[in-house]
Write a structure and sequence with these properties.
The chain is elongated and about 65 Å long. The model has no long low-confidence stretch (mean pLDDT about 95). The strands form 2 sheets. Strands 7, 8, 9, 10, 11, 12, 13 and 14 form an 8-stranded parallel beta sheet that branches. The protein has 5 helices and 14 strands. It is an alpha/beta fold.
């Protein structure tokens, strides 16, 4: 059974060996995970995992450092995902974090069935980032992903994308497993209504190669999660074809 985990960004480092936990993280340990004084848990910071012991002796939840280890996969996966309506995109955010996404770029596509009013972009971004941070605690990932503001396909040339680029399609295409990415890769997944042919032309012009995730037709958020999971295993050397 894995240890409970908290994020430490909003906690206070009291000394080299002690952290005063953010009240919300302390509540998570005590009320959600049912931890007791002296129980072990993990503290997560970008690039770091810290094994801690819970100390409740002062009336505040503190973490006493037992050991610390660097954390980082060395790989980089970009997911460019056609914008979806609320719940499916929330699931895409959470589960792509669990499967290893490094940068998530919401795309404004011709067939997206939802749009975000300019005045609500900030609150939507905050929501996605909260979901991503919670997902890092679920999977024990120290580095949270970067989530960019929604952009149209015309902005793709201005993104610092990896050179290995794939776009998932439902028609005939080589399997993504036939590709040979190295340490960095990007994959684009369309919205509920799929890509238009004009959008595929734009993506191919920017170096994206059409790939298939298999014979079945997946929901958009499922396709994004599967694509990230497959690339994660390929970049980690866990899949050989």
């Amino acid at each position: 059974m894995s240890l409970p985990r908290v994020r430490l960004e909003s906690s206070v480092r009291e000394s080299d060996t002690t952290w005063i936990l953010d009240p919300r993280e302390g509540h998570h340990l005590l009320s959600v995970r049912r931890c007791r004084d002296g129980d072990l848990f993990e503290g997560l910071l970008p690039g770091r995992k810290i094994l801690m012991r819970l100390d409740l002796s002062s009336g505040e939840a503190r973490g006493v450092v037992i050991s610390e280890s660097p954390e980082g996969s060395g790989r980089e996966i970009w997911l460019l995902a056609g914008l979806l309506k609320g719940d499916p995109f929330d699931r895409l955010v959470a589960q792509s974090v669990e499967t290893g996404v490094s940068v998530l770029v919401p795309l404004l596509c011709s067939r997206s069935v939802v749009s975000i009013p300019p005045g609500k972009i900030t609150s939507r971004m905050e929501r996605w980032r909260r979901i991503a941070m919670e997902a890092t605690k679920q999977c024990g990932r120290a580095d949270p992903p970067e989530i960019l503001e929604p952009v149209p396909l015309s902005s793709i040339p201005y993104l610092q994308l990896p050179s290995h680029r794939f776009v998932t399609v439902t028609g005939p295409a080589q399997a993504i497993l036939a590709s040979r990415p190295h340490s960095r890769a990007a994959v684009a997944v369309g919205p509920e209504g799929d890509w238009t042919e004009e959008e595929l032309v734009i993506l191919e012009r920017e170096g994206f190669c059409r790939v298939s995730l298999g014979p079945g037709v997946m929901r958009s958020h499922t396709a994004g999660i599967v694509a990230v999971a497959v690339l994660s295993m390929m970049l980690d050397g866990d899949v050989h074809v």
